[in-house]
Write a structure and sequence with these properties.
Number of helices: 2
Shape: globular
Distance between the termini: 35 Å
Number of domains: 1
Order of helices and strands: HEEEHEEEEEEEEEEE
Strand content: 35-45%
Largest sheet: 12 strands, antiparallel
Length: 285
């Protein structure tokens, strides 16, 4: 992966509004990363899947996880999409998150995906927005719904997510994830994440809204890594547009499909877990 470039992309996305507060940062939780979202699992179904995956249920609010591959052909290049829904507890107050981890099959072909061949400096991304990143650093996108407490009211904000490769000095793939909101809070902020062997780790600091007001909280999010991205290469004095290969699905599918899981930790020390499985193409194994 090459070092970050601060030059603007040839086809920059719209730059988000200037940073005026940090209320929408929680919405960056992954990530992300989508074209085929399934109906969210019920809390009971999520708990059962998490228990089967060995994560346990946790003592936090119920969480539902869904995932899909597009296309879903064995041995083909694909994009991975997932969605997370946090169900509000009985007191109707979801606490802010402190960390999130998403576990995915370790044999997915991320290393040969051709994604993230350039890097985007997170500091440049935070100041200048997504248009400042090299197009070859974009790895995916998504959206999230965030609850923003303003006085006695809870306002809902839909936030756009952009996922970019960022500089790495440890051999792992690091990500810079930007969340941009417009109404009711105009804000953009960047979080850092790292893709390790078979799992994605994201740290989420408490995000202040107004002085003395509660922190903003994530309600749901969906994101895709891969998909219809356009990269550029220079050859023989020309700039050529192309689409990166994408994440490679293995040639065989495990019994019961590909297992994914999510583990969420909240600022009060509680945690929630959910699991799901992507069915084998054609119902095969």
């Amino acid at each position: 992966m090459t070092q970050a470039s601060s030059a603007r992309a040839e086809n920059p996305t719209e730059t988000a509004s200037p940073l005026t507060c940090r209320a929408t940062a929680v919405a960056l939780l992954l990530v992300a990363c989508a074209s085929a979202w399934c109906t969210a699992l019920t809390g009971a179904a999520s708990a059962s899947a998490a228990t089967r995956s060995g994560l346990g249920v946790g003592d936090g609010p119920p969480v539902a996880l869904t995932a899909s591959f597009q296309p879903d052909r064995l041995g083909a290049a694909t994009a991975i999409s997932f969605a997370i829904q946090i169900e509000p507890p009985e007191d109707d107050a979801i606490l802010p998150l402190s960390t999130m981890e998403v576990v995915y099959p370790a044999n997915l072909g991320l290393a040969t995906s051709g994604l993230g061949v350039e890097a985007c400096d997170p500091a440049v991304l935070a100041v200048d927005g997504a248009g400042a990143c090299p197009p070859d650093s974009k790895m995916g996108e998504g959206s999230a719904l965030v609850d923003v407490p303003i006085g006695p009211r809870i306002l809902h904000e839909r936030v756009a997510l952009g996922i970019y490769a960022s500089p790495s000095n440890d051999g792992y793939l690091h990500l810079a994830i930007i969340a941009a909101g417009a109404q009711p809070v105009i804000a953009q902020i960047v979080l850092s994440a790292v893709l390790l062997d078979g799992h994605l780790q994201i740290g989420v600091p408490p995000i202040a809204t107004l002085p003395g007001a509660p922190f903003a909280t994530l309600v749901n999010m969906q994101a895709t890594i891969g998909g219809r991205l356009t990269y550029y290469e220079h050859a023989h004095g020309r700039t050529i547009a192309y689409h990166p290969r994408g994440i490679g699905l293995p040639d065989t599918c495990p019994q019961g499909g590909w297992k994914l899981a999510a583990s969420l930790a909240f600022i009060d020390g509680r945690s929630s877990h959910a699991g799901t499985a992507v069915r084998c193409p054609g119902g095969g194994t």
